Amino acid sequence: MEDDRLLIVLSIDQATKLCGYSVMDDENLITYGIIDLTQSVTPMLCFYQEVKRLIKEYEPEIVCWEDLKTDRNADTIRCLGKMVGVLQLICEKLDMKYAQYIPISIRAKLCTIKTGKGGRATKFDLAKVLCNKYDIEYPIKKNGEEVTNAQHEFFNKTDAIGIGLYHCRYGNVVRKVKDKKKVSKKVTK
Known about the structure:
5-stranded mixed β-sheet, Nucleotidyltransferase, domain 5
């Protein structure tokens, strides 16, 4: 018998302090938010527990996250590398599929307007696309201008939503799953 439920995707935008997450049912946004590591004396444990909680609550078929970028400082790369290890450990322990995507590829595919250097899409372009698609309010400063600080937690949320949407559109996973083990070559298990 075929499972009529659409593909549930948990996507994570890992960060050193405020990690974005989203849960999608195919391209329908179920929820999104922040995993706040700033108050924890054991941030990796906090991250592990929160990701496990999200998996238990939403029962995704796959977990997706951002592939590491090399344009950051060494301390940040080390921390994000540990988070990728935590995500892989969780998925492998739970026998779950997982995938990671390069941010520039996500933005290139999802954004029609590209305001960055060399005609590339920025995280702000992606945020605007997702705000329009999901009726999310773009953050505005008190002076009425749009927020343009890339470290603002809003962009961690929209990056996570973008990862999930990208996976739903381009991740090559069978939409109606008869056998949860059947996945494409792009997905790692």
